[in-house]
Fold:
Amino acid sequence: MSKSADGSGLRLVATPLALSQLALDNQQKAAIAHRGSPLIIRGATGTGKSATLVEAAIDRIRGGQDPESILILAFGRERASEIRDAIVLASGGTVQEPVSRTFHALAFSILSMQSGDAYRETVLISGAEQESFIRSLLQGNIDDAVTWWPTDLRAGSEATMGEPLLTQGFIRELRDLMMRATERGLTPAELAEKGKRLGEKFWPAAAQFWQEYLEISANMDSGAGDSKMRIDPSEIINSAIAHLKNNPDLLADLRKRFTTIMVDEFHETDPAQRRFLELLAGNDLVVVVDPASAIGRFRGSDPDGVNQYLERTLPTATTITLVTNHRGTPAKYAVELRSEAEEAQYIAYQIKRAHLMEGVAYKDMAVILRAHNTTATSIRRALGQTGVPVAGDREAIASNASIAPFLLLARIAAGSEKLTLENCERLLLAEFGGANSISLRRIRTALLKARYEATDTRTGTQMIIDAIDKGDIPIAEGDELRRVHTLLAAARSSLRKKSASIHDLLWAIWSNAQNADNQLIKDAWERAALRGGARGATADRDLDAMVQLFDSAARHIDRMPGSHPRLFLEEIAQENIVSDLITAKGIRPDVVEILTVHSAKGLQFKRTFVAGVQEGIWPNLKQRSTLLGAERLVERERHGEDLAQTTLDLITAQSLAEDERRLFHVATTRATEQLHITAVTRDEDSPSAFFLEAAESDDFTATTFDNARPLTANALVASLRRALRSSKSVEAAQLLATLAQSEISVADTNNWLGAHPISTDAPLFDEGQLVPISPSAAESFEQCGLKWLLGRNGGSNGDSTAQLLGSVIHEYARLKVEDSNATDEFLYESLNNAWPLISDSAGWINKAQLQRAQKMLERFAQYHRTSTRDVAGVELTFEFELGNAKVRGSVDRLEVDKDGKYFVVDFKTGKAIGKKEAAENLQLACYQLAVVLDKFEADLTRTGENPEVSGSHLVYLGHTAKDVTTRERPPIDVAEVTSHIENIATGMSSPVFYAKKNKFCGTCPVKTSCPVHIEGRSVIG
Ligand code: SF4
Structure:
């Protein structure tokens, strides 16, 4: 699109395709001029075969032939429309469009060419829908306990019977076998008979299933009362053949109409497609063939048999072989990298550099992979971070992290997923939930505290489920729960509408979802996308994925009108529903494509990056269909049934290896200027033989990558800021100012973290104000001032199970002393009864935790039994002032020895500390000081004099040693502890707090806000 000449609006500009822009050589001219007999055009990649086909069509049209009498058959919808557009463009837009179709599209339209009462609209179901249908039939087989599936395909026990049949792998294999058999014109009975004869033990069962599948599909109605005929991809060509044979008039009409038939990439045809072509084609037939670049064997094509087929069926054909390489020879690089991340960075750097410094358009560059895998994800991320626009994510929509929670909510609303704790947490942690791991714990604890009555014995888990499910939210601080519940209610309400579709459901969720700032998420994403930067790129990608989701839903409604939304949700969870390439290009033309080699077929780019050429990945020599043997069926059909098993295995393996080599050939012949192939060498990862062959050949320059500064505004601003800080560079300051004026937001000092003046340097407590200190806070401050500061201001973990357990054990310790009826057995039983309130885990984790808790209680009982001192009191509170410190706390237990001296006991449920550390323990010191100063609420004076302490210890109930483990702190030096606490109070009232690395940093709840750790550095700036 570009501005119109008068600047008043936009006008559409067609992009000329490269296909017919070549200078034609003699062979091409001969092929274009050829008439009178079938023509076979051969030639390697880049010799202009397709361009010749296009020119041959134009030549006929210019000679007066009706464009609509020319039928062009291509592989892939996009390829078909490219050829059609190329013909129209190359003729200056003066010709009518010829008919350019895929084999499937042609068969599909022929099936609709019926007349009379028997007419039914035909709907082609997708692979995912077909698999979903197979799955439901298999489930029926299991429910009906059909006997034809061998026991090998069923798990041993009653409980698990049938499960192997329902795995995605098995369903795919079954679908493959049925498709390959259909393409080869076999019937279920023939497949069963072959299976028996050839020792393929699962084929008879698969054949029975196939028969059932055919019968049910024939009778199947959508359930919505429409009159559509659904047909799956494997049947469509055979059905069209049968239809033509049953309607000779229709066949004669078509033969009369299509006087010329041209087939692009004939090597990708399967036997059924060839039979279909034989029916339709007359004398003016042009086929383009290059078996070396066939990649469709996994879809049933037969590149190995194509030459014999052509010799047999077109004995009078003329063959012209094209030899001139029109694509040019690109510079070739084999780049070995040290990690997948480095591989992604290399590709992002090269693409950005080519665009910025050499003016290569993004759409002229592509990344090609063997398959979508983690390499695709890391490359996509690196491109996004570098600011390179990438075409819509062609990975599964369901695996998009931002979309997945919306789908989960939809599945729960539709009843195909249960509201478990795990799902509740996933919803709460989603953007529309707005929770994080800390707030989740707080919510749970708040819910437990808010149980209405003593009879309410629900667990925290049940309360969270009830909150989301029924809106039963008895706490004020549960906004996260309220948002998720409201959204779920909106989704459920959309389904109550008559004939609610998947679109209604998705729209109810998407249009109502709000984030923690009460903004609609759809508006928030849109605003972020328009702002740009890394967040903008993410929002852009997420919006793309959401659009794809709605597109897929719309296609599903077209195909299966009236079906329950659950069906779509099931399919999308099982299948990679990928973006539509044409749509993606239409929305953002100048974008880099990340393509699988199958989707790169037939395309051409200035620069390509063939990535992930790793051992085990490319070539991928793993047999695809080992159990049901669709590949063995294909090879036996091609090479004869008498093959010995070992020969067959060899042929299958060889075919697979050839397939992989052809795929690599296709991937490495897409570039006109530069080709980069990349692989990683690290630990167990190594480049594959394909990469090594290329790297060692003279055609390639073998190279590595020295990390260069990413070509992003962020990285540039960071280096300018460094230069400004280290050398006060005036140029750096000027450049930053220029960038800021050009609205590069990261260069604007207002947006720099740490660039703003400190909001206050006032001390935390005013002069003369008392500083409240608990013994545990004093210890925390001792470890690290920042941890204490952030902890007292919200940066602490909520109550975990461990903390709840600690409180419970302490409570029992109190009970044991204060209630003479509290026997050990009574305590054990109470713990068991209360356990569901304490732990939210399930299964063996729950069991293990309960056992641990029981052990703690036993150890406490043992301690209580064996202690030689009397118990003076438990949970005794104290308060005293020292300087500007107001120390307040409570001691777990005070014991008194035979000399009347007090001994402080502190119970611990965590790990034991070292003896030396315990000897200086500040908590115990505070307790002892409270005793010596006689500051307990309870009266400790026994002799009329100030109480004395004989020492203190920590008692570790959770320690695994046989006996109860203790750690001693001897009697304190009162003056020393007093001054220590006064110093802490002074430190706590300071305006400055320091982060002090210590051995507890690993479990510190505020580590992500701590400047001494990489995780938190950016927060402080
Ligand atoms: S991570 Fe370590 S240094 Fe940082 S705040 Fe926590 S305890 Fe202090």
Summary: The chain is about 50% helix and 10% strand.
